[in-house]
Design a protein that fits this description.
Layout lengths: L1 E2 H8 L3 H9 L7 E2 L5 E3 L1 H15 L4 H8 L6 H34 L6 H15 L4 H5 L8 H19 L7 H17 L4 H13 L1 H7 L3 H19 L5 H10 L7 H13 L7 H18 L3 H13 L11 H16 L4
Antiparallel strand pairs: 1-3, 2-3
Helix pairs in contact: 3-5, 8-9, 9-12, 10-14, 14-15, 15-17
Length: about 350
């Protein structure tokens, strides 16, 4: 049993902090001495470890309290998560250390380094950390400093901008080819992970500094998406009659902004082991079908033609965000929804 002062000293916390944890019911000592001193046993210390670990993960004290009232989280799981988080921080620190060593080498050799470029890199790292966890950053190829990736994107953006400034239309075959390359590279540099794609999309939309640095402005993104739409329509033309294609042309892309976050939520549900017949999966399937109907319409025959195209045409799956497993998950959730008795 440890007195509160001893526990504070051993953990680096203040006595005041431990008093606060006790006052809010987050960590109450298992016993008190005859003199009224708080006494903490091994179970209390294990709970404190969980609290401190969850704080490091960014959870508020209120959320931690709610979390700890649920099923007991094995301490080994908490430690595993800490190790994973620290591994990510170590990797990031190693990247920064490498850049600093390069900078020092230039200075030691009497060279004047390009400080603007170096500071831009640091700004880039900080910006990404606002939107992605350390674990996610390790899974995001676009985040890892790479001269080759940076050069490829810079060249592609310049090509797109050149055609835009020259008055080219998204119908132009050159623009459509660039749009296809864009989607392929985007899938590669997000690991075809829809969660990462959704966050990257949000970052670009909300951060003017990112748009300015990369050249991927909202106008450029809209231009590329319009060309992506034309590529999709060219495929659908082989499956649909004139009236069906006209409806799809009028409505395809109208709710594009809603797809990335929905796809990310579906992927998260799948990764967490959510069953297709669960309420969560059914709710996601309802949202999915609503978005599908927004461009496919309500005719079952037309919907089936579009599903067939989506299953058979790789060009409609550029980026790889929606794979066969996800389609099977949504299909099973829809079947479970139809099978449930009417209220």
């Amino acid at each position: 049993m440890l007195k509160i002062g001893e526990l504070a000293k051993r953990t680096g916390l203040t006595v005041r902090t431990l008093h606060h944890y006790d006052d809010i019911g987050l960590l109450s000592p298992s016993a008190r001495s005859d003199a009224g001193y708080r006494l903490y046993n091994e179970r209390d210390i294990a709970r404190l470890h969980r609290i401190l670990a969850l704080r490091r993960f960014g959870m508020s004290l209120a959320d931690i309290g709610t979390y700890l009232t649920g099923p007991d989280l094995p301490l080994i799981d908490v430690v595993d998560r800490q190790i994973a988080m620290l591994t990510g921080q170590i990797d990031q620190a190693a990247t920064l250390r490498s850049r600093l060593q390069g900078l020092r080498g230039q200075l030691a050799g009497g060279q004047e380094p390009d400080l603007a470029d170096w500071l831009t890199t640091l700004e880039h790292m900080t910006m990404y950390e606002k939107y992605f966890s350390q674990e996610e950053l390790q899974q995001l190829p676009l985040y890892i400093p790479s001269k080759q990736i940076e050069a490829e994107w810079k060249a592609l953006v310049e090509e797109v901008r050149h055609l835009m400034d020259g008055g080219a239309s998204p119908l132009d075959a050159r623009v459509r080819e660039l749009a296809a390359r864009w989607m392929t590279m985007l899938g590669r540099d997000t690991g075809a992970n829809p969660v990462l794609f959704a966050k990257l999309n949000t970052m670009h939309e909300q951060e003017p500094e990112v748009q300015q640095r990369t050249g991927i402005t909202l106008e450029v993104m809209a231009f590329v998406l319009a060309a992506v739409k034309e590529n999709q329509l060219a495929v659908y033309e082989r499956y649909l009659d004139a009236d069906e294609l006209a409806f799809v042309r009028a409505n395809l892309g109208r709710r594009d902004a809603e797809w990335p976050p929905l796809i990310a939520r579906v992927r998260t549900a799948m990764d967490e082991g959510c069953a297709p017949d669960s309420p969560t999966a059914k709710a996601l399937a309802v949202q999915w079908f609503d978005l599908f109907r927004s461009f496919a319409g309500d005719d079952p025959a037309t919907q089936q033609k579009i599903r067939l195209a989506l299953e058979n045409e790789p060009a409609l799956r550029q980026g790889g965000m929606v794979d066969d497993c996800m389609r099977d998950f949504i299909r099973a959730a829809m079947q479970a929804l139809r099978a449930q008795p009417a209220p």
